[in-house]
Amino acid sequence: MINLEELLPIVLYIALLVLVIITIVFVIRLIKTLSKVDIILDDVNRKMIKVDGLFDIIDRTTDIASNFSDKIISGISNGINFIFRRKRGREEDE
Asked: How far apart are CA 84 and CA 29, in angstroms?
């Protein structure tokens, strides 16, 4: 008859062997997945560099439009202030 003292180490060695094989397969799949993720990240990085140039163009365009509208509003404001100063000057003279 089989003794439990002989059977238990055999079962543990078989379980350990199965665990090592499963771990090796998992690590190999993980390495393949990481290489695919690396390729995808490189592609995304190249695309972001292209989009970054577009955003720079848009940013410069909005800065120019903002400066232009600020100058127009400043000119209109100065014109209105000039008109009201003239009216105040005439009222003080009278």
From this structure: 79
Q: Residue 31: in which H helix or E strand, if any?
A: helix 4-93
- Please count the other Cβ atoms lying within 10 Å of the Cβ belonging to residue 37: 10
Determine the Cα–Cα distance for residues 62 and 33; give it in Å rounded to an integer. Answer: 42
Global pTM reads 0.50
> Alpha-carbon distance 94 to 31, whole Å?
92
pLDDT at 26: 98
pLDDT in tens, 26-56: 999 999 999 999 999 999 999 998 899 889 9
Name residue 12's amino acid: L
Structure tokens at 57: 């163009």
